[in-house]
Fold this protein.
Amino acid sequence: EWKQHIEPKKNDIESIKKDIVSHTLETLCRNPYNLDKMAVYQATAHAVRDRLLEDWNLTQEAIHQQNPKRCYYLSMEFLIGRALDNALHCLEVKDAYKQSVKDLGFSLEDLLEQERDAALGNGGLGRLAACYMDAAATLDYPTWGYGLRYQYGIFKQIINNEGYQTEVPDYWLNADGNPWEFPRSDIKYEVQFYGYVATKVNEKGESRMSWEGGDKVQAMAYDVPIPGYDTKGCGNIRLWSAKSLKTFDFASFNDGDYDRSVADQKNAENLTSVLYPNDNHNVGKELRLKQEYFFVSASLQDIIYRFKHTNAAWKEFPDKVAVQLNDTHPTLAIPELQRILVDIEGLEWDDAWDIVTRVFAFTNHTVLPEALECWSVPMMEKILPRHMQIVYDINLFFLQKFEKVFQNDRGLLNRVSIIEESNPQQVRMAYLAVVGSHTVNGVAALHSELIKTELFSEFIKYYGPEKFINITNGITPRRWLYQANPALRELITETLGSKKWVTHLDELKNLKKYAEDKSFQKKWIDVKLQNKTRLADWIKTHLDISVDPHALFDIQVKRIHEYKRQFMNILSVIYRYKNIQLLSAEERKELTPRVVIFGGKSAPGYYIAKMVIKLITTVAQVVNNDDSIDNLLKVVYIPDYNVSLAEIIVPASDISQHISTAGTEASGTSNMKFVLNGGLILGTVDGANIEIRDEIGEENIFMFGTLSDKVADIRHHQKYHGVPMDPNLQVVLHAIQAGEFGGFETASVFGPLINTLTYGGDYYLISADFEQYLDAHDKVDALFKDKTTWAKKSILCTAGMGFFSADRATREYADKIWNLKPFTIEKK
Ligand code: 26Q
């Protein structure tokens, strides 16, 4: 009966207009004679989402029927960005919608700007999760994402009048509502905290532990559809929101205690209020631990509910379910599944552990010690008493086996123990993730080697090297080229004669034969100029700074972190500025004008990172207002860098900088985005820069700096013998200290920042790398004058990027880790 009433949406402009109008009148209850852009955006979003939902329903039905093995991607962060433009591109209906909206008296580009970013992530890790969901949907993998529905995403960054970062909450679920999520009021689970552990006898007469008492909150599901490209398949991310189980407390209300009556509700809902704004930094906060368990518990209950629906036996669970842990943040899923299997389902410990270790796999994203998650044992005992016992048992059985192989080495046992014997004791989540997973992967070749030789070296001795693999990160070509760079998309499609490259990015290699073709180069250069003009216009409109699109655009946008060395970048900008001041008129003619663009957020409590922002904005003030330098240099800080801004910034680079101290940046993914869009890289021999070099050719990338295997020695030397200060760097530091940027008062503010280089031992090797860095800049300047060679290299950049598609990466996960096949569904 239901099926015969399902009417697929039509693709013609008249039908689309009807859809938009009916949503305006009926969904929004708005009067067509009094409409603003927000209302029309909402109506348009609803119209597009209806189409997505057809695919969504079809997909879920197909997966249900075929009942294949499924994969669940557990991530505390999904940095999705905007949905409307992406959906229009994936459904290939953008032109039709543009026309429809135009007929109705609006501009589609204006409407797209109304949408708030879904910014439920900090940076690379969260954006990677979003790219993988795009690829999984496009490739028809039965993969779901699980995450948290934070009410506040990553904060909005404002640069105040003094040039400091200030933070404003990101209340993205504003009064207008979010058309891209579906509340599932029927999908709710209870999640427990605190309480105690008791012993109980189960139905089979066996004695089992039971976690009882404590507080309970409710997790409710919200589904976010993820469109695939060129498929009728549509993916899903299920986000959990915390709700109180207790309803309004009438007793206290009637007593006049209004606060108490809502307190429980508020407390519970606080759980999913806010995303922790720390990128690559561990904070051992109680609320964070609760978020992690809440997330894991709800997701596992949902996964198990779905599995049980098929009436399969527990031993089949690993054949039907793969769970990928996006860093250690969801690692509590390991003891949680063990608890469910042993305490609740009554399995024997060893049988349960066999299932657990065949289900989970773990992706590591960092080797930075300060980023590794550790939880204090007393805190975990209080909040998750049964899990703490299980972690102890997991550790005990692991160490017992370990000891059989390596006898009488207490030091070694201490080093691999999941429990760190500090005061208080700590649970090392990365070790728990290693022990509880069948496969551990790093995110770029160098990084995957480093985790084998450093972070997890002792585990290799026991498990052997096969458990530790590399899957180099990838990015989705849909958002990061097809959608973000229409001019280049059209040129590539026209040149290659088809759109096959959008789902088979290796096809880009066929651009190589045009690299030296003069007329193609001209078109290529013109596309880049259009994109630089688009960014220059944005900068003029929003920041009132004029930049020349013909200048070299040199961009570094990413989270502000000492290891990423934005400090080194701005110090080199000062060097350049002072150098320009010394040049004669003749010499100035030879110099390439540059626009140096920065963007990125600092964690709110990261003092040194905030000082770096202050230094950049201070230098920008001075440089941009100095008429004596003939516009040879501009410095721009783009506030509130986010996914939507990246879509404008990434296509506009001539050079982008990825200059982390070697061995510190696990992969980086914006490096891939810039190169895919024909930007050259100025980078260190770190992360995925290395593989990008190998793919595009070393003649097409500017690389410099200490190699990772030399870093430790230099640090050691500097710690005990002081930092040899690079002479050019010395000059720059003197200029800052002399008050050339913002006067003496401001100069004193930069004291602690400068100290990191001197007394601080220059941990990130800015002085050691400075000379090579300046040399690399000189090479960039020289090459930019040769437009033909530059264009050729730029073309070869894009042409060589096929490997870095998220499609390739997702396939590798499916083949090497998940043992997952695509399900069957019509192509569009
Ligand atoms: C941990 C504990 C408590 C609170 C927050 C955190 C936390 C949150 C986010 C720790 C780390 C992160 C994010 C890490 C991250 O984004 N890593 C990046 O991952 C990218 C994708 O693999 C890589 O390309 C980057 O090199 C890596 O820095």
Observations:
- The pocket of 26Q is lined by residues 122-125, 128, 276, 278-280, 282-283, 288, 365-366, 371, 373, 443, 473, 665-669, 687 (CB under 6 Å).
- The two ends are 26 Å apart (CA to CA).
